[in-house]
Amino acid sequence: MSETTPTSTGSIDGVNGNLIRVTFPDAVMQNEVGYAVIRNLKLKAEIVRIRGRQCWLQVFEDTAGLKVGDAVEFSGELLSVELGPGLLKSVYDGLQNPLPQLAEQCGYFLERGQYIDGLDRTKQWDFTPSVKVGDLVEAGESVGTVPEGLFTHRIMVPFGWLGKFTIKKISEPITCVIDTVIAEVEDSAGEKRDIKLYQSWPVKKAIKAYEERLRPVENMTTQVRILDTFFPVAKGGTYCIPGPFGAGKTVLQQITSRRADVDIVIVAACGERAGEVVETLREFPKLEDPRTGKSLMERTLIICNTSSMPVASREASVYTGVTIAEYYRQMGLNVLMLADSTSRWAQALRELSGRLEEIPGEEAFPAYLETVIANFYERAGLVRLKDGTIGSVTIGGTVSPAGGNFEEPVTQSTLKVVGAFHGLSRERSDQRRYPSIDPLESWSKYPSLVDDEKLDQTRRGLREGRDVEQMMKVVGEEGTAMPDFIKYLKSEFLDEVYLQQDAFHDVDGASSAERQKHVFGIIHQILTTPLTFKTRDNARQEFLRWQQIAKDWNRIPMDKPEFTPMETKLLDAVAKFRTVGEEN
Ligand code: ADP
Ligand code: MG
């Protein structure tokens, strides 16, 4: 990796797991990177607290062998990521070490004290300038572009530079490496600076080199019906998926990463199990991107940490992920950042807080947990860039509360800040009703792609049907009045043919916005049709038959000639039982 000369050196006073206490001679900064020196190894660490001449660092590695008196070299730099062409398709750990071909060799991780540059120093890129000598530029504005796979990667004035800069030199179109100086600029005081194809940015600080933040309103469709129709997410918005172990959080995120209409997906996998992360790594490159027909990896970046890796790098991984997401947003792209699971991240915070002997909050999580979570989700957003283009970062995080209890601090803190809540239910996953999103508990503050009034009506119907179902458990079917029984059957129909969806079926698994609007309209029409049946058995049989027709319909592509006849078949079947005369 690129060597940095230490700005100062301190000495270890105490080692407590991954936390070390160090006396330092000169000035240090909160979140500054230091390296604990152990023989010929340097273990990366981050300053998490400063008191007088002592500071505490969390070490991102196993600290075995570190002892009092060992040296710590301070870097003078905050914990940062490299931002430039070559990020996409990467698989990183939480500290942006590339974990290439890792998927092949399950369980292989970097050895202690080994760090690799986040961006390849030898790879060649074709740079094309977009400014000329004499132009004035400021932080976040482009000086040129580089093609990166499917995208035009903007080479931007480093985000942390203040004021206006005059272009003094700008490269001709060239093929170069990321370390090449492609522009020289001068600030108002006459000081010169170089611009390369990449820059570094501290992960815990949001990139704000844009004009303004906008209100997220446009749907980020996922092609999952229950989400887009009932609990939508807007581009630039936030949502969370809490659910007990095994309820389907990871599968749901995988579906979303494939189908969501965004340009780039960043997956921060703070895995529950090591195998799960490796699975993700194996699966992704094989998956075809439904939008481009190429490998999904072309527009994906994976940051992975398993529960077997040190907790501190788990904590860093969500920040590394969101920083890269913000970087691509600066290019006018729509980015989706998925964090699975944020509970693992919160546990890392809890562990650190415990070692620091801070006054604990609820369930021993730090008292500032809520602030940390809020600050993280705050980094999502829809923005207008300085050149007028729009970009977005949408954040979706899973939460895996112990025992599926949503009352715990991580779920509660997250619910306070997100715009949509997709609660997974154990009951539904046990019944294999996938995706197992609870249709009565979940909510969203973003606009749906269907008519609000029809949606409310449908929700009411669902709730009423569920109430009848509960009541029937007590009084039995015989004791249930026919109109109530029909309410129940209607809610089951909605559940079976619309809320549930076969993720593994090409057609049913991906329901476009256009299709959802159309199908929802038909389903709503059926649900609001007054019906009459001779007997309960008769009603149940009919509903089962309609269910089957609707399910077949769900499996026919909308542009196939069979689509409309199947719809007609369904409507005709229902029409035979329409109440004539008096409404029921
Ligand atoms: P979690 O991340 O909540 O622990 P997973 O996403 O790993 O749970 O899901 C556990 C299992 O449940 C999966 O391996 C799969 O068998 C099943 N499952 C989850 N979601 C779906 C789905 N949408 N369709 C079919 N099976 C699913
Ligand atoms: Mg999972």
Shape: globular
Strand content: 15-25%
Radius of gyration: 27 Å
Q: Give the uncertain stretches in residue-range form.
A: none
Helix amount, in percent?
A: 25-40%
**Distinct helical segment count:** 13
Gap between N and C termini, in Å?
Answer: 75 Å
Kindly state the mean pLDDT as a whole number? 92
The computed structural class is alpha+beta
Number of strands: 26
Largest sheet geometry: 10 strands, mixed
The distinct bound ligands, ions and cofactors come out as:
adenosine-5'-diphosphate, magnesium ion
Which short descriptors sum up this protein?
single chain; about 575 residues; alpha+beta; 10-stranded mixed β-sheet; 6-stranded antiparallel beta barrel; 26 strands; about 25% strand; binds adenosine-5'-diphosphate; binds magnesium ion
